[in-house]
Write a structure and sequence with these properties.
Length: 252
């Protein structure tokens, strides 16, 4: 079956609850294309208000991170059970900023991805190489390792609903996007790694997104590539008009 494109907005540490609700209302002012799935991932503090603003729309709610335990003495953390209670469908795990600034590892990402599935959430597992890794010719080794180790705790029965986001770290927030052709090549490597892990049939159903300075101007270039199934959008998702244009480009 064809993979339905997913456009997910990662708001990062932006938007209060009221600002987030206003952004969603602006996004929903006109119907979104039906051939694309859309998700927004606000900060934890805005999840409740954004959920209310989404109402009965088809836009999914996602979170930007979580801890892998259901409950416990983990001050400052939020659990998958809490995210489900807030109405989340998706949760981002293993984002490069979590790895870079907060010391998270492939094992951390694997624990979170496994726990997300165990509690009814769909993980968006992020993988991607740093600039020095790319310049050193290690792109394939890095993304295959992150994909293989990051999926170690995922039940193969559930794996077809997994989402992977390929985000070359050197392209995040820099305005420097990989070319569509190059992103497609690397995502093909990721899909082959998934086939080794889960089998060809499952790998063919897993959606793999591109992320890294995705803007309305480059969205069509990526959406036209056969291996790319949508985008994880950062800065452009904070503007309803820009985000809508990215969604529309993926539906074309």
């Amino acid at each position: 079956m064809p993979r339905i494109p997913l456009i997910a907005g990662n708001w990062k540490m932006h938007k209060t609850a009221g600002e987030g609700a206003a952004l969603v209302r602006a996004l929903l002012a006109d119907p979104l294309p039906s051939r694309v799935e859309v998700a927004v991932c606000p900060p934890f503090t805005a999840l409740g208000e954004v959920r209310s603003a989404l109402g009965g729309s088809t836009v999914r709610l996602g979170a930007q991170d979580m801890y892998w335990e259901a409950q416990g003495a983990f001050t400052g953390e939020i659990s998958p059970v809490m995210l489900r209670d807030l109405g989340c469908t998706y949760v981002i795990v293993g984002h490069s900023e979590r790895r870079q600034f907060f010391g998270e590892t492939d094992d951390t990402a694997a624990r979170k991805a496994g726990a997300a599935f165990a509690h009814g959430l769909i993980p968006i597992l992020c993988v991607g190489e740093r600039l020095e890794e790319r310049d050193g010719g290690r792109t394939e080794a890095v993304v295959v390792r992150q994909t293989t180790q990051g999926t170690e705790r995922i039940d193969p029965v559930l794996a077809s609903t997994l989402v992977i986001a390929y985000e070359p770290v050197w392209a995040i927030g820099t305005g420097r996007a990989a070319s569509g052709e190059e992103a497609n090549r690397v995502i093909g490597l990721i899909r082959r790694a998934l086939a080794e892990r889960f089998g060809e049939n499952v790998a063919a159903r897993i959606r793999i997104l591109y992320g890294g300075s995705v803007t309305p101007e480059v969205a069509a270039e990526f959406s036209s590539q056969p291996e790319i199934d949508g985008a994880l959008v950062g800065g452009a998702s904070l503007d309803a008009g820009k985000f809508r244009k990215i969604v529309e480009a993926s539906a074309a």
